[in-house]
Design brief:
Blueprint lengths: L1 E5 L7 H17 L4 E6 L2 H8 L2 E4 L8 H9 L3 H14 L5 E5 L14 H14 L3 E7 L7 H12 L3 E4 L2 H9 L8 E2 L15 H4 L5 E5 L13 H21 L3 E5 L6 H9 L10 E3 L5 H8 L4 E4 L2 H9 L4 E5 L2 H9 L6 E3 L5 H13 L1 H30 L11 H4 L2
Parallel strand pairs: 1-2, 1-4, 2-3, 4-5, 5-6, 6-7, 8-9, 8-11, 9-10, 11-12, 12-13
Length: 411
């Protein structure tokens, strides 16, 4: 059996790469004889990191400048058809194409002929090749561009298996007019990642508590937002104000990232903070994987985060979080853990309210951690249920023979 995995992997987003890793670990244990192919943004990086066959997202392209010029004058139609032929060749012999997690069905920072078109083109090619398509624990919505919505809706319709990481995504896909009667709702794949070794609770507890802040280079939903600079500057100033107050109150503050693009925000926030003269200690980690993020989370008592997978890692390790989200996915995840009161929007959060909520959480930290841990136990069971479905319905060779259930295959 040959399985292709499609996604924006190797692009610098640690959440995307963590979703791929979780799926690869499962597949390699459950179906070790399967041939794996990753179709991704950075084939060199992913091939080296995960030791598997890789290919780029775009297929063949014109190399000669004159040919590229003619193709541009013709609306790139000929180039895209040439790319489709190349993609069809890549998918030869593929039994299943899996989209493992990520917020694949939205257009955050995208144009129609960016990621939305790529997903549609690969799904169309997979269908033409007779391969099954599976969207596994994906995030969906919003899709604000009409053409992007058509591409992504058409791609989702071609799937034979769809599951969503939250109720908002399921409802959003229903709103696109897709029949979801046979679809599923399962946790994000990154909940299945290996955890770092946890320190003893008494060893890590400090007074005052240590606060983590997951920073983000946020400039609005659209890639070229007219107010992007102002949105970003306001965010940096408010995060710096929160960090400064926490340091003045004696808290240690640890800054970390969720995407390589966040390095600019990290540097700008550090530049806005005093190098000395505060009661607490400031540190910054240039985290480039979810494992590195989790290592940082273990060093804090509470985290203030914006990126979805930084939030997920915080909750996965039983730490309470304050969410400064830019989409409904953060609110959905926090609600699932009973933490809806601690949700804010990244463009409108109030510094004083966030600081008050830090004090509220720290006042009853043990109870918050216990409640989060109970939800994590249920999530682990749900992950195994989806693995069973994948082995019986999705990861099946064209002859139709299903694989052992997860509880047997993964012993």
């Amino acid at each position: 059996m040959k399985i292709a995995l499609l996604g924006q992997f190797g692009s610098g987003n640690s959440g995307n790469d963590g979703s791929l890793e979780a799926m690869l670990v499962f597949m390699r244990r459950a179906c070790p004889d399967a041939a794996l192919l990753c179709i991704c943004s950075n084939p060199v990086a992913i091939g080296e990191r995960f030791a598997l066959e890789v290919t780029g997202l775009r297929g063949a392209a014109f190399v000669h400048p004159l040919l590229r010029w003619f193709d541009g004058r013709l609306g790139r139609i000929h180039g895209r058809l040439t790319g489709l032929v190349s993609i069809l060749r890549v998918l030869g012999g593929v039994d299943v194409m899996v989209i493992p997690g990520t917020g694949i069905l939205d257009d955050f920072q995208e144009t129609p002929f960016g990621w939305p078109f790529i997903v549609y083109w690969w799904c169309l090619a997979a269908r033409l090749r007779g391969a099954r398509i599976a969207f596994v624990s994906i995030g969906a919505g919003p899709i604000r561009g009409a053409l992007s919505r058509w591409f992504l809706t058409s791609a989702a319709r071609m799937a034979t298996y769809r599951s969503y990481r939250d109720d908002f995504s399921l409802r959003y896909v229903q709103g696109l007019g897709i029949d979801t009667a046979s679809d599923h709702r399962f946790p994000d794949l990154a909940f299945g990642l290996r955890e770092p070794v946890r320190p003893n609770a008494m060893q890590r507890r400090q007074i005052p508590a240590t606060i983590g802040i997951g920073v983000m280079r946020y400039r609005g939903w659209e890639r070229d937002h007219a107010d992007g600079n102002a949105i970003y500057r306001t965010y940096v100033d408010k995060i710096a104000a929160i960090a400064r107050r926490l340091l003045d109150d004696g808290h240690d503050v640890r800054l970390f990232m969720g995407d390589t693009s966040d390095e600019r925000a990290l540097d700008d926030i550090l530049a806005a903070l005093p190098e000395n003269g505060t009661h607490g200690h400031l540190s910054a980690a240039r985290t480039v994987s979810l494992h590195a993020v989790m290592d940082e989370i273990l060093k804090v008592d509470l985290a203030i985060v914006s990126r979805f997978h930084n939030l997920l890692c915080t909750l996965k390790l039983d730490r309470p979080a304050l969410s400064l989200g830019y989409a409904d996915k953060n609110d959905e995840l926090m609600t699932e853990f009973g933490r809806a009161d601690f949700c804010h929007h990244i463009e409108t959060f109030d510094v004083e309210q966030v600081l008050r909520q830090v004090d509220t959480v720290l006042a009853d930290l043990a109870a918050a951690e216990s409640a989060i841990a109970r939800r994590n136990a249920a999530i682990r069971s749900e992950l195994v249920r989806q693995q069973d479905l994948l082995l019986s319905q999705v990861l099946v060779a064209r002859g139709g023979k299903s694989l052992p259930l997860a509880q047997d295959a993964l012993r």
